[in-house]
Amino acid sequence: MAVYALTGFSLVSLLSFGYLSWDWMKPSLVADIATDPVEKSLPPAFARPPHIVFILTDDQGYHDVGYHGSDIQTPTLDRLAAEGVKLENYYIQPICTPSRSQLITGRYQIHTGLQHSIIRPRQPNCLPLDQVTLPQKLQEAGYSTHMVGKWHLGFYKKECLPTRRGFDTFLGSLTGNVDYYTYDNCDGPGVCGYDLHEGEDVAWDQSGKYSTFLYTQRVSKILASHSPKEPIFIYVAFQAVHTPLQSPKEYIYRYRSMGNVARRKYAAMVTCMDEAVKNITWALKKYGYYDNSVIVFSTDNGGQTFSGGSNWPLRGRKGTYWEGGVRGIGFVHSPLIKRKRRTSWALVHITDWYPTLVSLARGNLSNVPGLDGYNVWPAISEGKESPRTEILHNIDPLYNHAKYGSLEDGFGIWNTAVQASIRVGEWKLLTGDPGYSDWIPPQTLTNFPGSWWNLERLTDGLRKSVWLFNITADPYERYDLSDQRPDVVRTLLMRLVHYNRTAIPVRYPAENPRAHPDFNGGAWGPWASEEDGDEWEGGGEPLKSRNKKKKCKICKLRSFFRKLNTRLMSNRI
């Protein structure tokens, strides 16, 4: 039996936060008040293909929205979700690239070769070019397609860029982590460059503008210049609320009483993003799109708890296969929904948006066989049963193998040292090393993470490599049933074996020195051509910037510190 210890929090304090008032086994407690038996306006079959706005936030924790009991103010998200359909059985992936690739392709990572880690800035890697993307299918259906925000699906060749993968326009960053104002990004010591792009060009002139504001203004501009009579798809992939923790001062001031500095800055970023969503919704109404629109809101992975995020009361955090890493915030807001103002417990995964949105757009899915996603619109709009009954969270053969896993522990059919996770019906299985496994309440204390006593720890299970949970009855993953139900373990292992037979080889190439921004005018961007292939050998001096208006500030600083270090070393010698 596992031994749990919750120290630093009394029962009274937990009740004061509202943690014990939310019973997942009684959906009625979290559902909104039912609407009238007869909706005032139930739309017939769509007269025209709907306008689609997909909003993806970065590293927003499961707890970090008002309607999940958060101390962070998100009035816009709360209202849009309350008036639409909240998805409370919605799953994403534990880190950035995997969620984005599955959204764009409708396929599990094992079917795109991206099942390990993320695409790093210097890797000759990107979303496979043979994949037909969601925006490409929407273009086929007559949509104008636009992307604003974070790409993080590779850029080593121009063929990998958003404008070559189905988007008519693009404003955003190509890498996974940039400064919110300067758009500088360092991929290790001395490997720094600028990363804000307009189409296929470096957007030097936009530096200094806070990204959440910049991206929201661009969405409004796109809507203002387009005709609402023609269908449009806008993918808004906010940088917020990923690190670095940066926010305009006026938002931080609202949380000045919050003792934990990281949580305070993080909360400010969430609220700023919430207001950005408000402005996007307002623009949809102002320019005549709203009545025929579908707004989808989704997080990309669990929150990073040591950077202000919270997934409470779920177990784990970003980068793990515990529920805190893979259960996401999600809702759909649209005048076209037939049964509004409710909470849905239908099983939905991020791969489902591809066939769902293409179907809404009256697109053709017959020429993209092998999708792992399902059309879940009837489940969302009409409350019908979800066609999805299982989710492969992932199989990662390259991740560090668990020390105590073996083929023997997997009934001779699966090596339990391999990191993998799957959900089938109400059961969830994890093998290998699922990642950091604590339950962490929102970090309001000033000295977190220095204090160990304000989180709940599992004190055994360190020598395990197999876990089984009834995720419906035990959504917090507190009661491992792998020993009591070996029959279920074996059944789910067989499903892993089945999926693994369909997996393609992992694509995770070595970093390429040619990717260094110093060789590309001080900015991150494509460096290879079709003739170059994936490997590059060579040297030479960095190329001079083609854009003389602005130079990479961080490169200047790096040069200064190099010279300073040389002088200091000379003096020491």
From TrEMBL:
It comes from Grus americana. Keywords: Calcium, Glycoprotein, Hydrolase, Metal-binding. It holds the Pfam family Sulfatase. The keyword Protease does not apply. GO terms for molecular function: metal ion binding; sulfuric ester hydrolase activity. InterPro entries: Alkaline_phosphatase_core_sf (IPR017850), ARSB (IPR047115), Sulfatase_CS (IPR024607), Sulfatase_N (IPR000917). Belongs to the sulfatase family. Its cofactor is Ca(2+). It comes from the Eukaryota. This is ARSI Arylsulfatase. Residues 50-361 form the Sulfatase N-terminal domain. The keyword Magnesium does not apply. Gene3D superfamilies: 3.30.1120.10, Alkaline Phosphatase, subunit A (3.40.720.10).
